[in-house]
Amino acid sequence: MKLLLVSDLHYTLKQFDWVHNVADCFDTVVIAGDHLDISSAVGMDVQIVVITKYLRRLQAKVRLLVSSGNHDLNGRDASGERVARWLADARGLGFLVDGERIEVDDALITVCPWWDGPRGRDGVGELLARDAAHRKARWIWVYHAPPEPSPLSWTGTKHYGDTDLVGWIHQYHPDFVLTGHIHQAPFRSGGAWVDRIDTTWIFNAGRQIGACPTFIAVDTAAMRATWCSLAGNEIVELDGSPSRPVTELTRPWDPDSDPNPVQTPHLDGEPASPTPRPQ
Fold it and tell me: What percent of the chain has pLDDT over 70?
């Protein structure tokens, strides 16, 4: 499976355009939370309408999995905890959302919601326990917040991740956890875009300005992950040593010998033929 991971697009429509334009290069696209931007001058209701149209258009091209992040919360559940109600309402539109799972080849992928309190946290624990009974050769989680402590949760001054996630990783040992949330982690000294806890690989692509988001291309057949950003591109071989820090296992992406993960000369920019935005 060739999988594209992005997150924290925060209503940056040019970056959603980019994802749509390269989707054909992948079997699966994961957007791991924070589709909306609570600081935007555009109202949340309008953002939800626009982003839902983007997601529907994207799922027509590729298998799409979408989790919620802390910017995506527009309602409350029966316990009064904040939830991404608009994503729950999108269930059935063709892309997978919070609380759903899918089997792809030899992998089970679980989409976890952002949780805002003890009831939500318990719900994630119940979700993982449920899906553990359906585990395939590989188990992949989509989970907005990175684990703490981890280089993936490092802001440059402190860790700001999810300690409960660490416990679940130790309990279930998923193969991959696809995260986001901490924009700066890959760019800060002491931070990273990839980490490993026990036998679990965890990824956080980070966030950058411009038309092309930071992204990670994971090839489960080649057991390789490639991180691409304006700061540079790196590769890690996923059959390498499990020792930390994993950053010692990464190497620069070589345009002469390494495959371009999006199979296009526009690795660091906008694709050549943008499609019209949804109206």
Answer: 86
Tally Cβ neighbours within 10 Å of residue 194: 24
CB 96 within 8 A of CB 102: yes
Closest alpha carbon to 247 in 200, 186, 198, 206: 186
DSSP 185: G
β-pairing, 107-111 vs 101-104, is antiparallel
Pick the CATH number of 2-252 from 3.30.1490.20, 3.20.20.70, 3.30.465.10, 3.60.21.10: 3.60.21.10
Q: What's the pLDDT score for residue 103?
A: 95
> Which long-range contacts link 245-250 to residues 24+ away (Cβ below 8 Å)?
245/151, 245/192, 245/195, 246/151, 246/192, 246/194, 246/195, 246/196, 247/151, 247/192, 247/194, 250/194
3-state secondary structure of 50: helix
| Structure token pair of residue 50 | 């626009």
